[in-house]
Structure formats: structure tokens, C-alpha cells
Amino acid sequence: MSSVKLVNITKSFDEKIVLQDINIDIKDGELVSLLGVSGCGKSTTLQLIAGLINPDSGDIIFNDKSVLNTPTGKRDAVIVFQDYLLFPHMSVYENIEFGLKMKNINKKIRKDKVNELIKLVKLNGYENKYPSELSGGQKQRVAIARTLAINPKILLLDEPFSNLDINLRNEMRDF
Predict the structure, then answer these.
(1) pLDDT per position as a tens digit, 30-56
(2) Which of 21, 54, 156, 157 counts the most CB atoms within 10 A of its CB?
(3) How far apart are alpha carbons 129 and 45 in whole angstroms?
(4) 159 pLDDT band (50/70/90 cuts)?
(5) Taking each helix axis from N to C terminus, what angle separates 92-102 and 107-120, rounded to the nearest 10 degrees?
(6) Is the dihedral of CA 85, 88, 93, 95 positive or negative?
């Protein structure tokens, strides 16, 4: 894990201020939830931390170092989006394996990790299915498994359990 600080962050879109002078200090190992009404800036905050968008002003700090000029891929902060962003041409197995492949992880280790995650998110038997063949909840579980596969230091979840049934939601929270 890593500590994360947002210092005096302001972000606007088309003249509309979404975040103004926001300060957040998340210690290593802490679990934090952002709560608020639709449109209040929760997703924007996650995108700022992940480096997908830049603030108008302020600083974003990981482990006492500014990451404003650090490329998204080097931040080791991974986000699971509300709309999953699965690769439509890849199977469940291939979607989960993707990040491990990009990191050149050994094939046997990849296979073991993907199979472990498929069990965790209760998608046994779906390994060869494609996103178009899955329900919303199943797609969400694939997206969560894909993110967990690479073991990021900072895990950002945007509405991670919204499409899961109550039993699976409780199991995933325990993980």
C-alpha cells in the first residue's frame, strides 16, 4: 500500500467547479469510502488519484512525493470503473490475465493467479465466455478480478459492488 494525499485540489469541467480546495490524507493500509450524491465529484476524485485527469490546482502525493507529473501507468494506482471497461474480444480468463501478461509474469504463475481469482469472484465455468455473454454483475466481477490480479499498491473502486447480489457483495467486502 501507499499513503495518498490530496492537497488543495480543485477541478472543474466547462466552467463548472466539481471539486474545490479538497484535502484528503489516507494513511498506508487505510480503507476509505467516498460518499455523496450523484455528481458530487467522487468519480472525479478517483480519476485524479489514478492520474487519468489532472487537477486545475493543488497537488497529489503518494508516499510524500508529488505524482502530478508521474504517468498514469507508473503510479501503481488502479481503478475499477462503474462501466467495467472489459476487452470485448477477450474471454473472461484473458481479461483477468491481461495485466499479468503486460507485466511479463510467468505463464504458470499467471494461470494459478487467474484460476484463484475466478474462484474468488465465483465465475467458475465462465472462463471461456466473452463480456457480451455476461450479466452486469458477472462483468463487474471480471473487472474486480482483473484489477486484483496485478496486486496494485493503490486500489480505487468506483461503485464496485453496485451490480452484485447481496451474498456476493458481502463476500467481496470481506476480501
Answers:
(1) 889 898 898 899 999 999 999 999 999
(2) 156
(3) 33
(4) confident
(5) 130
(6) negative
- pTM higher than the cut 0.85: no
CATH entry, 4-75, from 3.30.390.50, 3.40.50.300, 3.40.50.970, 2.40.50.140: 3.40.50.300
- Residue 64 is predicted with a pLDDT of 92
Three-state DSSP at 24 gives strand
List, edge to edge, every strand of the sheet that includes 65-66: 16-26, 4-13, 57-62, 65-66
Q: Does residue 74 have a pLDDT over 80?
A: yes
Percent of the chain with pLDDT over 90: 60
Which residue from 172, 170, 136, 138 is spatially nearest to 157, judged by alpha carbons?
172
Three cell numbers at 7? 492537497
Cα–Cα dist 51/129, whole Å: 31
Q: Give the list of residues 6+ apart from residue 162 with CB closer than 8 angstroms, or none.
A: 82, 140
